[in-house]
Design brief:
The protein is α+β, with helices and mostly antiparallel strands. The chain folds into 2 domains: 8-106, Roll (Ubiquitin-like (UB roll)); 129-450, Creatine Kinase, Chain A, domain 2. 28% of the residues lie in helices and 22% in strands. The protein contains 11 helices and 17 strands. The chain has helices spanning 8-17, 46-50, 110-124, 193-206, 232-252, 296-307, 309-316, 370-386, 418-425, 428-431, 438-450; strands at 22-28, 34-39, 53-56, 70-75, 81-82, 90-98, 129-141, 143-147, 155-159, 210-215, 222-231, 256-258, 272-280, 283-284, 333-338, 343-347, 359-361. Strands 7, 10, 11, 12, 13, 14, 15, 16 and 17 form a 9-stranded mixed β-sheet that branches. Strands 1, 2, 3, 4, 5 and 6 form a 6-stranded mixed β-sheet that branches. It starts with 7 loop residues before the first helix and ends with a helix.
């Protein structure tokens, strides 16, 4: 299912050799939704990679700001893979978005923003690669229903086999119900083992490496998949593909997958731990002899994330959520500790190998636009280095949570507008190198405030 393609000629060869009947072109809008359109191979040639393929998208977020609304998508040959769910052989390609008049990349194209962040890192000479890895959480419901009928008020119902709410349904949980503290239960308590196994198998065939998958702490079919690190833009691509695979596998089994940060009342929500490191060639730059084996660069990077955390939440946790509440194993303190997930940042302690040394940012959730979120995190970390920030004294390790900074993380819910206000007040670090532009920030804020 995966292809190791690098050039347009490679893609055209794969289309011919594999008798591809449909080409599916994917791109991401500003809020982070995958969009697509398809074309037959007869309408796809080398010029498709040079000029792109035109579409008219007046209702797509960010396209609405482009005069005329016509834009072009430019396929990325390295992103090609065979769609594992299509009835006919379909090649999927992730695309960049280009303005047809100027011939330039669209400033509001999230993938372009991610690529500019990578270029800015290299230009800064701090390092040449930002690697990102993910622990992606989600919930798979056995049944989910939405009622938006004209003669009925909005009503949602969801049911998962292990939850207490399934007790009314005969044979639903068969007595195997989790009451929190549900980390790593084996079957039959873990009713999603086969579902996750299928998801992981498909991801591996596509070419996305998975380290582990497991049941998460909750009472409603909540699981996690840890994806192997990749460069920033590629990792954002992988996340979009992973969410697609999870939703499709669930759908084929008559289930519904969601990445809502708080899908069940008074229960654990879906988070996304983001692991980050900077490299120079094959040399990891976050390993050193400081706190928890960190380098000065790593501690500055931590400080940048913490300094800009309120603004980052507007991008990294964009939806209404009660995840940031004490008692739900989410970061409620601005600080960093080794091996502790009650602070916004953590130093994972996996093995002494310098290549394993990394920053873990625990605030994001999978409803974010990964291209924007990863780019924003990298820019915050670079800003921490540029300004030699230290939010925590690097010479005084904090092993006792009571000594951590007790600064509450503002809730990201649009109803409070706190994180949006923070982003409006603090986004100069995102504008460096033209990575984000003022128009992008304003469009993003306007969209979120209007919802």
């Amino acid at each position: 299912m995966s292809y190791n393609l690098k050039t347009p000629e490679d893609v055209l060869g794969a289309i011919k050799d594999n008798k591809i009947q449909r080409i599916d072109l994917r791109f991401t809008d500003l809020p982070g939704r995958w969009r697509h359109f398809s074309t037959p191979p007869t309408a796809f040639d080398l010029q498709s990679f040079a000029r792109g393929l035109k579409f008219d998208g007046p209702s797509i977020r960010w396209v609405e700001n482009i005069q005329g609304n016509d834009v072009f998508v430019i396929p990325d040959p390295a992103s090609a893979f065979l769609d594992p769910f299509s009835e006919m052989p379909t090649l999927m390609l992730t695309c960049n978005v280009q303005d047809p008049v100027s011939g330039q990349r669209c400033a509001c194209d999230p993938r372009h923003i991610a690529q500019k962040a990578e270029a800015y890192l290299e230009a800064s000479r701090i390092g040449d690669t930002a690697n990102f890895g993910l622990s992606l959480e989600g919930i798979v419901f056995n049944d989910a229903r939405n009622d938006y009928s004209a003669n009925c008020h909005h009503n949602n119902e969801a049911d998962a086999a292990e939850t207490n709410c399934s007790a009314w349904r005969a044979g639903a949980g068969q007595g195997h119900m989790l009451h929190d503290a549900g980390y790593f239960p084996p079957p039959p308590l873990d009713a999603l083992q086969a579902v996750r196994a299928e998801i992981v198998a498909i991801l591996e065939k596509i070419g996305i490496k998975v380290d582990i998958s497991h049941y998460e702490d909750a009472t409603g079919n909540r699981g996690a998949i840890d994806m192997r690190f990749a460069a920033l833009t590629r990792m954002a691509d992988n996340l979009m593909v992973c969410k697609y695979v999870i939703k499709k596998v669930a759908r084929q089994r008559g289930m519904t997958a969601t990445f809502m940060p708080q899908a069940l009342f008074a229960n654990q929500g879906a988070g996304m731990h983001v692991h980050q490191s900077i490299w120079q060639g094959e040399r990891p730059l976050f390993a050193g002899d400081g706190y928890a084996g960190s380098s000065a660069l790593m501690r500055h990077y931590f400080a940048g994330l913490l300094e800009h955390a309120p603004a980052l939440l507007a991008i990294c946790t964009p939806g209404a959520s009660s995840r940031f509440a004490s008692g739900f194993e989410v970061p409620v303190n601005l600080g960093y500790l080794q091996r502790h997930h009650s602070t916004a940042c953590c130093v994972p302690m996996h093995r002494p190998d310098p290549k394993a040394k990394r920053v873990e940012f625990l605030c994001p959730d999978p409803s974010c636009n990964p291209y924007l979120a990863f780019a924003a995190m990298l820019m915050a970390g670079i800003d921490g280095f540029d300004n030699r920030l230290y939010n925590i004294d690097p010479d005084e390790p904090i092993e006792n949570l009571a000594n951590a900074q007790k600064v509450a993380i503002p809730p990201p819910a649009p109803g409070s507008l706190e994180s949006l206000d923070a982003l409006q007040a603090d986004h100069a670090f995102l504008l460096k190198g033209g990575v984000f532009t003022p128009d992008v920030i304003e469009t993003y804020l306007s969209h979120k405030r209007a919802r």
